[in-house]
Amino acid sequence: QLQYVASGGGLVQPGGSLRLSCTASGRNLDGYAIGWFRQAPGKEREGVSCISSSGDSAYYRDSVKGRFTISRDNAKNTVYLQMNSLTPNDTAVYYCVGRHTVLINSVQHMCAQGIGYFRSWGPGTPVTVSS
Q1: Are 35 and 98 a contacting pair, CB within 8 Å?
Q2: How do residues 24-67 score in pLDDT, each as one tens digit?
Q3: Looking at the DSSP assignment, which residues form a beta bridge with residue 93?
Q4: Partner of 24 at 20 to 30 A CA spacing, among 3, 67, 79, 96?
Q5: What is the reported pLDDT for 1?
Q6: CB 80 within 8 A of CB 36
Q7: Hey, how many other C-beta atoms are within 10 angstroms of the C-beta on 25?
Q8: Which of 102, 131, 121, 108 is closest to 5 using CA atoms?
Q9: How is residue 41 annotated by DSSP?
Q10: How far apart are CA 33 and CA 95, in angstroms?
Q11: CB-based contacts of 56: which residues, under 8 Å, 6+ apart?
């Protein structure tokens, strides 16, 4: 069964950095737009950043602009989320998920979708920002 696997989370102090990685078991990510979503305790899952299949288009939610950078290395079948200047408000479980490029409107539209828009989710990786 297809599963998107997020890794790289952990405990970090405010102002610190983490780099998350996303791979897909049993699937080549070529041709797939990939998104990073997060869910904090008691809150809905929200889109953080999404990147097109070619990597030439990316979207960021306002609260992470200038701090987070999404990138992909198709040769390594991996998508990254570099997170800098982390704050306690970034504390959440972070998930990555994909959708074939022909099935999306835009990366911004993809990042605005809910859980049911995607066929499968992996377990996510927890990020805790605390002193």
Answers
A1: yes
A2: 887 888 899 999 999 999 999 999 999 999 999 999 999 999 99
A3: 39, 126
A4: 67
A5: 63
A6: no
A7: 10
A8: 121
A9: T
A10: 14
A11: none
